[in-house]
Amino acid sequence: MPKTLPLMVQGTSSDAGKSAIATALCRIFAQDGYKTAPFKSQNMALNSYVTLDGKEIGRAQGVQAEAAGILATTDMNPILIKPTRDSESQIVVNGEPYGNMKAFAYRTEFYHEGLRVIEEAYQRLASTYERVVIEGAGSPAEINLNDRELVNMRVARLTNAPVILVADIERGGVFASLVGTLQLLEPEDRDRVIGVIINRFRGDLTLLQPGLDWFEEYTGKPILGVVPFIPDLWIDAEDSLILHRYQGQRETPREIDIAVLRYPRISNFTDVDPFFVEPDCRMRFVTRLEELGEPDLIVLPGSKNTLEDLQFLRETGLAAAVKELHHKGKTYIVGLCGGYQMLGESIHDPAGVESPLKELDGLGLIPMITTMEQKKTTVLSRGEAVFGKEKLIVEGYEIHMGQSAYSSNDFPFIQMEGRTEGYCQEERQLIGTYFHGLFHNDHFRTLLLNTIREKKGLPPITDRPSFVALREQGYDLLADTVRRHVKLDTIEAYMKAFQEKEVQV
Question: According to the CATH classification, is domain 5-234+472-500 in 3.40.50.300?
Answer without folding.
Answer: yes
